[in-house]
Amino acid sequence: MNEIYIHHKYFLNIARKMTMNEFDAENLLQDTFIRAYRFLDSFEPGSNSKAWVFRIMKNLFINFNRKKQAHPCYSIDTLVNEPSEQQEESRLKYFEIVKIIESIKDDYRQVIILFHLEEFSLIEISKKLNWPLGTVKSRLHRARKEFRKVFEESI
């Protein structure tokens, strides 16, 4: 394990580049070293330890981003809310966003409203609409793409 920990600064720099955030970089590094320690018995002595740890870090980062995309930590409200002094402009943006959502295909609109505005989980949406989970995920993805497309056209 000492052979791996020697490269602590190297991996911290890589984690910073991946996450572009100091806090997340430190968490990624810590998770990487914990995972490396847990699976140390699968490391083949004499092989490239740096490459082995890098692969662990890369996989953890990819998995973290997949989870983040599946459950984003923002809502459409956060896109609209602005300081109170600009309340009129904020209200205008809210109506613009509602107008964009209304222009989206019905199935996509249902999913985006349930997920982002009403904060249902993907599983809850699946049960509520009686759709398979994969259908909910794909329609949410398509709804976001459609929203982005209409939003960019309106700018």
Structure write-up:
Helix 3 crosses helix 4 (49-70) and helix 8 (122-129) packs across helix 9 (133-154). Helices cover 76% and strands 0% of the residues. The chain is mainly alpha-helical and 155 residues long. It has helices spanning 2-5, 8-19, 22-38, 49-70, 76-80, 87-102, 106-117, 122-129, 133-154.
Give a brief outline of the structure:
With 155 residues, the protein is mostly helical. It contains nine helices and no strands. Helix content is 76%, strand content 0%.
Radius of gyration, Cα only, in angstroms?
21 Å
SSE class: mainly alpha
Low-confidence stretches: 78-84
N-to-C span: 54 Å
State the main characteristics.
0% strand; 76% helix; elongated
Topology, please?
Elements: H1 2-5, H2 8-19, H3 22-38, H4 49-70, H5 76-80, H6 87-102, H7 106-117, H8 122-129, H9 133-154
